[in-house]
Specification:
single chain, alpha+beta, six-stranded mixed β-sheet, two-stranded antiparallel sheet, 2 helices, globular
Length: about 140
Amino acid sequence: SVKKFDERIVVATFKGNPKTAVISCHAPHNCSPEEDITDFYEKLSNAVQDIPFHSMLLIGGDMNAQIAQSFSLHKYSNRNGRLLSAFVEQHNLILGNITFHKHPRKLWTFRAPMDTLSQIDYCIYRKIWRNSITDCQAFSTT
């Protein structure tokens, strides 16, 4: 089944053992008003809470978040990065992109017009499935 929460969040649920839920989302830009970003994370939290804990949950999205962690492309987190980190911690999730050690060319997910590379798209999953996910990386065209 497919459920659209709003123009930024869609949840697809697949039958199986266990059931799998995939959330596709697009967060507001880092310079968006605080209210827009707060509203987005509230709706995303509601979507995550609607999915039973024993189900496989995968969130893939353009989070517009730069996060500074050990296997990350960035040295500093932006506002969206701090909010995404708090969201991940609150819901007991893992950011797959920065869990596995990768060459820097395998980390970036967005090239800005001035050729600046950023890691703003993430694959996110529940910690209980961490042993089932063995790799996660971006594939660039260069």
